[in-house]
Amino acid sequence: MGFFDKIKRAFTGEETPEETEVQVQEKYDKGLEKTRKTFGERMNELFANFRTVDEDFFEELEETLIGADVGFETAIKITESLRQEVKLRNAKKPAEIQNAIIEKLVELYEQEGIDEVNELNIQEDGLTVILFVGVNGVGKTTSIGKLAHQYKLEGKKVLLAAADTFRAGAIDQLVVWGERAEVEVVRGKAGGDPAAVVYDAIEKAKEQEADILLVDTAGRLQNKVNLMNELEKIKRVIQRELPEAPHEILLVLDATTGQNAMVQAKQFKETTDVTGLVLTKLDGTAKGGIVLAIRNELHLPVKLVGLGEGIDDLEPFDPNDFVIGLFKGLLKEA
Ligand code: GDP
Ligand code: MG
C-alpha cells in the first residue's frame, strides 16, 4: 500500500489489519499532536486566506513550509513543483490543489527515501556495538536507557558503556538508566579516558557473550576538534577488538532545535561516519517538518524517534507512520 493510500485510510478511519500497527500509529499520533496541529493550522490558514492561487499564495506557502522546519531548499523545491502542478491542472482555487500539495509533499518525501534503511544493523550472532554521538542535552543517555530496556525485554543481553566521562553527573545518569532498564553499566572514573571505558566494556561484553553494547559519549562541542578526536579514538579501540564494529554510529538530534539540529548534523557528518539518526523530543515540537529537511538535505536515515521522556517513549522510525501523523486531517475528502 502506498503512502497516499495509507494516509487516506488513516483519514477516513478505516480499520487497519494488525493491532500492533494501530498501536504504533496511535503513539505517533499522540507524539506528533503538537506538530500536526501547528503544521495543520498553518496550512489550513493558508488555504482559507487565499481566494486564488497566485504568486502571493506560493510565497506564503514557501514561508509556511520554512516555518514548519522543512528547510529552505526543500520549501523551494516543493513550491516549484507545485507551480507546475497548478499549471497542469489549471487550478484556480487553493482548495482545488490542497490534496495536490499534500500528495506532492508525500511524493517528494518518498522519492528522497529510496534505498533508505531505517532498521538498526543488529547482528544475528555475536555482539552488536552501537555508538551514540551528539551535543549535550539532545537525549543520548535517555535514548540509550530506552533502547536498553527494549532489547532487555526482547531477551537480549545488554551492556552499557559510560564513555561520557567528562562530567560525573553524566556517568551517574547512565547508571540510573541502567537500573531502570535492569542492565549492567560499565563505568570508569569521572574525568578518565573514555576509550579505556569502552575497552573495558568490550572485554566484558565478550566475556559475558552479550548481544548489544550501547556506548554513551560526551558531546561538548565547544571543543570540536577534541570531541572528534575522542570519538575517533573510541572507534579505533572498538575496531581493534571487533573489526566490523561499531555496527551503528547514531547521531542524536533534538527535533525542537530545528535548523540548529541540521547544522549539528552537517558538522558531525563531515568528521564522523554517522550511520543514522535518533530524532528526540518530537513530542515537544510543533515543527515536524525537520524530518522532511533531514531526508532532502542530509540523506541520513532516521532510525529511532523519541516521543517522550518515559522508558517506553522510543520507537523505530516508520516513514509511513510519520507522514500519516503529519498530514492526517489536512486531506480533503474528494
Ligand atoms: P544527553 O546530554 O544527550 O545525554 O541528553 P539527556 O539524555 O540527558 O537528555 C536531556 C533532556 O532531554 C532530559 O531532560 C531528557 O528527559 C530529555 N529528553 C530526552 N529525550 C526526550 C524525548 O524524546 N522527549 C522529551 N520530551 N524529552 C526528552
Ligand atoms: Mg548524557
Automatic annotation (TrEMBL):
Part of the signal recognition particle protein translocation system, which is composed of SRP and FtsY. It catalyses: GTP + H2O = GDP + phosphate + H(+). GO terms for molecular function: GTP binding; GTPase activity; signal recognition particle binding. GO terms for cellular component: cytoplasm; plasma membrane. The keyword Transmembrane does not apply. It is a peripheral membrane protein. It comes from the Bacteria. Its main location: membrane. SUPFAM superfamilies: Domain of the SRP/SRP receptor G-proteins, P-loop containing nucleoside triphosphate hydrolases. Keywords: Cell membrane, Cytoplasm, GTP-binding, Hydrolase, Membrane, Nucleotide-binding, Receptor. The keyword Chaperone does not apply. Residues 301-314 form the SRP54-type proteins GTP-binding domain. GO terms for biological process: SRP-dependent cotranslational protein targeting to membrane. Involved in targeting and insertion of nascent membrane proteins into the cytoplasmic membrane. Acts as a receptor for the complex formed by the signal recognition particle (SRP) and the ribosome-nascent chain (RNC). GTP binds at residues 134-141, 216-220, 280-283. It is found in: Cell membrane; Cytoplasm. NCBIfam families: ftsY. This is Signal recognition particle receptor FtsY. Gene3D superfamilies: P-loop containing nucleotide triphosphate hydrolases (3.40.50.300), Signal recognition particle SRP54, nucleotide-binding domain (1.20.120.140). It comes from Candidatus Enterococcus wittei. It is an enzyme of class 3 (hydrolase). Belongs to the GTP-binding SRP family. FtsY subfamily. Its EC number is 3.6.5.4. The gene is ftsY.
